[in-house]
Amino acid sequence: MDLSSYIRNVNNFPKPGIVFKDITPLLKDPKAVNQAVAQLYHLTEKKNVDLVVGIESRGFFFGTLLAQKLNCGFVPVRKPNKLPYATVSETYALEYGNDTLEIHKDAIQKGDKVIVHDDVLATGGTALAVCKLVEKLGGEVVQCNFLMELSFLEGRKKLSGHNVQTIIKY
Predict the structure, then answer these.
(1) Is the dihedral of CA 132, 64, 48, 143 positive or negative?
(2) Is 95 a catalytic residue?
(3) Of 58, 90, 102, 149, which residue is the catalytic one?
(4) What is the mean pLDDT of residues 135-141?
(5) For residues 59 and 118, is the Cβ–Cβ distance under 8 A?
(6) What tens digit of pLDDT does each residue of 19-77 get?
(7) Is 78 a catalytic residue?
(8) Which one, 73, 93, 150, 155, has least CB within 10 Å?
């Protein structure tokens, strides 16, 4: 099954000149979702993993399904002031300005083996910030995985030193 055929291009979203990769058509099709989960699992099945950390918000869809398949826990990473308990935060640079992500301070224990998951690897800044959050809490990032990668943005370079896996490459 060619999962890329389930990804819709939306021009000029969220701003002019951007081609947004919309996974909504994939999410609508249970066979495509099952295939995506199977492929993500195949990338990670030989890892000894305690947690999957999913990045808000599209990283939650497959992150929770992957955690279930791996029989491990799931931890959400969110934008500021969205988590109800005490948090640890990481601020990172965007093309124009900064952004911040947060994780519950008790979400990861020292030595936990973690997969960082999101739907897309673009410039790598968001994923790198999440890796730093995991490491601040004493976790070990064993893999960063993504449904798709925008190779031309060279996000892998920011994640050098981490095992990066993707299913679909553009």
Answers:
(1) negative
(2) yes
(3) 58
(4) 98
(5) yes
(6) 999 999 999 999 999 999 999 999 998 889 999 999 999 999 999 999 999 999 999 99
(7) no
(8) 93
136 is written with which tokens?
Answer: 């601040």
E strands in the chain? 8-11, 19-22, 51-55, 73-77, 87-94, 97-104, 113-121, 140-149, 164-169
User: Is residue 128 packed enough to be buried (19+ CB in 10 Å), middle (13-18) or exposed (0-12)?
Assistant: buried
Of the candidates 9, 76, 64, 73, the one whose C-alpha atom is nearest the C-alpha of residue 33 is 64
Within a 10 A sphere around the Cβ of 45, how many other Cβ atoms? 11
pLDDT for residue 94: 78
15 within a domain of the structure (yes/no): no
How far apart, in whole angstroms, are the C-alpha atoms of residue 54 and residue 62?
Answer: 8
Opening angle at CA 120, ends 76 and 122, nearest 5? 115
Number of domains in the chain: 1
> What's the predicted TM-score (pTM) here?
0.95
Cis amide prior to 14 (ω within 30 degrees) = yes
Q: Does residue 71 come out as left (phi exceeding 0), alpha (psi in the -120 to 50 range) or beta?
A: left
* Per-residue pLDDT, 97: 79
Catalytic residue among 8, 95, 102, 135: 95
Residue 160 lies in a domain: yes
